[in-house]
Amino acid sequence: MTTEPHRLSLRVVVPPLGTRAGVECRPIVDGRDILTDVFDEGPAEDPRYLLGPNAPLKNATDVPREVRLAEAGCTERCCGAVYVTVRRQGQYVIWSGWRNPDAEEFDLPEFRFDVDQYAAEVHRATTDHSWEWPARTVARLLEERLREHTDWLTTWDCELYAVSAWPWEPEQITIFLFHPGWSAIGENRPWLQFRMTIPISGDDPADQVEHLEARLTAEDPREVAEVCGGSKESADQLGYPRPGPRRRA
Hints:
Helices cover 26% and strands 27% of the residues. By secondary structure, it is an alpha+beta fold. It folds into 2 domains: 8-127; 134-238. The strands form 3 sheets. The chain has a 4-stranded antiparallel beta sheet. A 4-stranded antiparallel beta sheet has the order 8-9-10-11. The radius of gyration is 20 Å and the shape is globular. Residues 220-249 are annotated as: Disordered.
């Protein structure tokens, strides 16, 4: 007897602004939140990861890909996470191979989704930004613009890491940069991380993005940012003060 495919929904959950909790993208299968009964150590992943550029849930192929759906609030190394392996098989997208690094026995059933329903739901969730607050919209649009024009950062020997907006800081965005770049960490070369915190108003997000892009690309970002990551030794070698207290850009 042929089994009907499961049905996927991706539900974005936004905590009350001002509270210290993250935005979650929770997988709902046949109307059931599948993480609820098996993992209470932390939130589901942020939609920025699951649904943003290069999103791991998009474009399932016959090459299996492991995706993290949730992580313990105290980090994966401490209390675990939830992983699933995603692959396409004919007219189905299959979720299987569930694991939690912190649990020897961790089991969820295999889910088989119709490929068209699956793709339509991932597309819907990816393009629906109605849940965003103004700073989150500005962060998303500004990061898209800055990644389209990387020459300004190349000039200053920097690499964009992220433009973030969090519910507990609802009226600001934070820009993170690496100098000279992310690859320096793996290559055991001196590196620093810089941070710029910028207030966001209730004005039109697109107008704010245009203004911020012009402002940011007109100057060396290291002159207006603060060092927030890296070692004292790296700071000394690169000619910057060691990571210190946070300040606004």
